[in-house]
Amino acid sequence: MSLPPGFLDELRDRVPISRIVGRKVTWDLRKSNQGKGDWWAPCPFHHEKTASFHVDDQKGFFYCFGCQAKGDALSFLREAEGLGFMEAVEVMASEAGLQMPERDPRAQERSDRRTQLVDVMEAAVRHFRLQLQTGPAGAAREYLERRGLDAATLERFEIGFAPDQRGHMTAALKAKGISDAQLVETGLAIRPDDGGAIYDRFRGRIMFPIRDARGRAIAFGGRAMDPNARAKYLNSPETPLFDKGRNLYNLGPARAAVGKGAPLLVAEGYMDVIALARAGFEGAVAPLGTAITEEQLRLMWRVAPEPVIALDGDAAGLRAAMRLIDLAMPMIGPGQALRFALLPAGQDPDDLIRTEGPGAMARILDAARPMVDLLWRRETEGRDFDSPERKAALDKTLRETIARIEDKSTRDHYTTEIRRLRWELFGGRKGAGRLSSWGTQKGGSDAEGARRGGRSALKSASAPARASVFVAGDPGEPMLEAMVLAICARYPELVPQVCSRLERLEPVDLDRAALVHDLLAGAPISEAGRAALETILSDAHVRTIPPLRHAGDAAKTAIILGNALDRLESFRAARAEIARAEAEIAGLADEGLTWRVGQLARARDRADHPPMEDTSDLGENRSELSREMARLKEEFTQKTRS
After folding, report:
1. Domains present along the chain, CATH in parentheses
2. How many Cβ atoms are within 10 Å of 154's Cβ, its own excluded?
3. Mean pLDDT, to the nearest integer, of 453-457?
């Protein structure tokens, strides 16, 4: 229906948003300013202890600084109570004391029809529950008893039974005045293609009512008692009430439990949810006979920012988890994450709880892993990376997958974590430190001849012209390397940011090489690594750099570390070029050599400007280095002419 102009504005003017929200939250009166209509409370959309949910009566909006939920009073009613738009408007109008405009006849007809269909479904719930107490349901009762479902559980989840008769339910409901058309429209009955009499869709099955977030019966799930049945579980078809990709089993009770502090658990089926709830895990839900959909993911995130996916520990469960990664990857970000609880092989939550008790399930949930771990497992488990090509294929696949994450901060953290996992996989192998790095840094190392040739060519740089983090003198490669290793040992949280560059270090001795390995692996520092670190810290020049002299700002320390690595890499690049130049001088030299060395000097000069701030300066005498490169150019030119 259409609303008259200004009607919604009048509703918002008459009803403060705090009145609507206040029915669902407990205000933090110490933080709130009631006189100004400024209200704070713990967020009703995700579990928290602090009041990060803000309501502003003057602006008419709410916003959560934790999960980023936001909107006006109408959107709050829709999200918090599962109301449709017009239903939310009706609630607001009732609060404001306003008469709702006359409905469009067609809209009124649709609303009335949905109400009638809900009434039909409720009648079916009552019918199936009564049938569970009859003689033909004896086998069903025995099965439920074997599964540990007592009378209280049957009552709580309204479990019923559909007799194995073609027209039992349709006859009973038609006797109550329900029409054939309504039975077919709700999916309870099927009309044959030949136009014959309708018949029951559910026969010989234990019946599980499916309710929406507001508690209205909208569908059924039926478990077959016949082991030879075509489908073990049968759900209602799509109807005006039921869209299986947009609903979750047990959503309403689970949302209430999450609001009281329970985690949101996503299991595979009805019996899993019931077993979890009986064991005290009240925030359990399940998709409805299909793989989790994008709409169901968004529905979960409206209930909790980090649902735990507890899928069966069999091949099918793992496949479902792996598929979910691809679905969720573009959608994850702050307040929208997933964790995965992988059960023992061949067990589902119901099996585990019945055989080992709730404590075993609690341990599984406590050990739930973030999605990045499952992504890594998917791409590496059971595969051999014994060639550069296979490693490159892994890198390419992971890059492409992570590139689908839209939130930049989350994407960056995934990149860092994958780098760490990659080092754990390859770091212990011979030559692993030489592998090209995963991520945005380019790998590669200098040729052995370049490492040997011209090593001393750039070690004669004179003292810095301005204040430096070193006491005196321009650090050569061993000193820069010592500085890098000392900072990484003191600030291990910075290692993931530079791990690809640490892999390309060329340590001056075996002890330093051991220290590099320990830092990259995130392992306790070995005896050899400790020996290297003690030697490094015994040098007064290293001890006096600001990050080691006292606890420094992490951001500034990261800049100092990055600058030290920049200089090490520029030393290596210059050394490799000079080695190639010297080789040409010894053989056939031409003007191309002169041009290349000159280009190197100019490139170095350009790369070193503008100068860095003193807080991040490494004491490099940039103008002196440029003059040194020009001097080398001239020297080489003279040699080629002689």
Report:
1. 7-96 (3.90.580.10), 106-241 (3.90.980.10), 243-381 (3.40.1360.10), 383-428 (no CATH), 448-508+543-641 (no CATH)
2. 18
3. 31
